[in-house]
Specification:
The protein is of the alpha/beta class and 363 residues long. 25% of the residues lie in helices and 26% in strands. It is globular and about 75 Å long. The chain folds into 2 domains: 189 residues, FAD/NAD(P)-binding domain (3-Layer(bba) Sandwich), CATH 3.50.50.60; 106 residues, 3-Layer(bba) Sandwich (FAD/NAD(P)-binding domain). The structure holds flavin-adenine dinucleotide. The site of flavin-adenine dinucleotide has 36 residues, from helix 2, strand 4 and helix 6.
Length: 363
């Protein structure tokens, strides 16, 4: 979360001024500076800061759990949504506005320790799990909740990496001025690619839509896009190369199962070809389905005791903010119950009782 100097909470330490997003963050920082021993051991670690992770964190805080959140960002995919019309309590809200409210709830009303970092590995340990984040920072917990959501699919072709954010974009972008009156290509054939064409129409010069299959979006939007008349539609074609020396100049496309190729001019290419679950951290430990989604039970538990999962990363039906948030809440409740059961088992194991006492009576 970016902290602005004019709105952040200020604290001076070692002759340096630091700015924090909340009093909780400041206090944690000052405490760690004073005792020089950052905390690394928690009951619960939540990985991911989208709607599922943020809701799990707020629930964990309200239940006074000893929890820690590690996320690459606070917001997740929802930040990219320009128009949310299906979240309870709001007729209409933008993704950034809704996420700002989630963040406020987390850092101001229901604080839990958190760090903006990427988790690189999760491995079983004697007393639960070791969670290894960037720069080999290692944290431990008895249980983890995975809410790492989904990432946009890339085309994986020559030049894509080189022109990323220099003409090649995934999904919506806020500022369209740089492609005003320029030729663009949209790659994809589903609803999000078709919506992208509608958003760009009238702003850019020529739009070419390149889809590896026939268009697969809803019938209404397909009809609208076809009806635009001036959009080039290449069905069953794939982008095989991004062209250009310093700046992006176009793409090369090839007919599927054919040899016919063509070059399309483009100073902007918008790729909307779907998402893939970020489940790589735990695929060695838990069962996943053929799409790579973590298989969960109704209480968000997985096949590995102590690992819970919530949101788009799971096989739960429906990829929506409200569903991810609900599942995040459920995962926190289930993790709390798991930790209580673990504690009960631990107490039972260490209890010294008179000989002949039945094990069931020990609890
Ligand atoms: C353009 C767009 C528009 C949308 N519009 C709507 C809409 O109008 N209504 C609606 O209900 N839904 C909408 N959605 C879907 C909605 O955004 C998702 O269903 C929701 O964000 C899923 O939440 P999540 O928390 O499960 O995952 P995500 O939002 O994907 O969050 C995952 C989080 O995990 C973090 N992460 C990933 N890997 C790691 C790692 N290794 N270490 C640490 N952190 C990690 C990410 O940085 C992120 O913080 C839209 C999605 C997009 C892309």
């Amino acid at each position: 979360m970016e902290v602005q100097k004019d709105t952040g909470i200020r604290a001076e330490c070692d002759n340096t001024v630091h700015y924090f997003c909340s009093e909780g963050c400041r206090d944690k920082f000052l405490q760690e500076k004073t005792c020089k021993r950052p905390r690394t051991l928690y009951d619960l670690i939540i990985v991911g800061g989208g709607p599922a992770g943020l809701t799990a964190a707020v629930y964990a805080a309200t239940m006074k759990m000893d929890a820690f959140l590690i996320a690459k960002d606070l917001g997740g995919q929802a930040v990219d949504s320009t128009k949310i019309e299906n979240y309870m309590g709001y007729d209409f809200i933008t993704g950034p506005q809704l996420i700002e409210k989630f963040q406020e709830q987390l850092v101001r009303s229901h604080y839990i320790d958190h760090v903006i970092s990427e988790v690189e590995k999760i491995e079983p340990a004697d007393d639960g799990f070791r969670v290894i984040a960037s720069e080999l920072k290692t944290y431990s917990a008895k249980a983890v909740i995975i809410t790492t959501g989904m990432a946009r699919r890339t085309l994986g072709v020559e030049g894509e990496e080189r022109f990323q954010r220099k003409g090649v974009f995934y999904g919506n972008i806020q500022d369209l001025s740089f492609i005003q009156d320029k030729d663009v290509v949209v790659a994809g054939g589903g609803n999000s690619a078709l919506q992208m064409v509608e958003n760009l129409h009238g702003v850019t010069a020529r739009i070419n839509l390149v889809s590896a299959t026939e268009l697969t979006g809803d019938a209404m939007i397909i009809e609208r896009v076809r009806g635009l008349g001036d959009v080039g539609i290449y069905e069953e074609y794939k982008v095989v190369e991004f062209l250009g020396d310093v700046a992006l100049a176009g793409v090369s496309i090839r007919k599927m199962a054919g040899e016919e190729t063509a070059s399309l001019p483009a100073e902007g290419v918008f790729i909307s070809i779907g998402f893939k679950p970020n489940s790589g951290l735990v695929t060695r430990l838990v069962d996943v389905n053929d799409r790579g989604e973590i298989i969960i039970q109704p209480d968000c538990s997985t096949t590995y005791p102590g690992i819970f999962a919530a949101g788009d990363i799971t096989n739960a039906f429906g990829k929506r903010i409200i569903i991810a948030s609900g599942e995040g809440a459920k995962a926190a409740l289930a993790a709390k119950q798991y930790l209580l059961d673990l504690r009960k088992r631990h107490v039972a194991a260490v209890c010294v009782l008179p000989a002949g006492t039945a094990r069931a009576e020990r609890l």
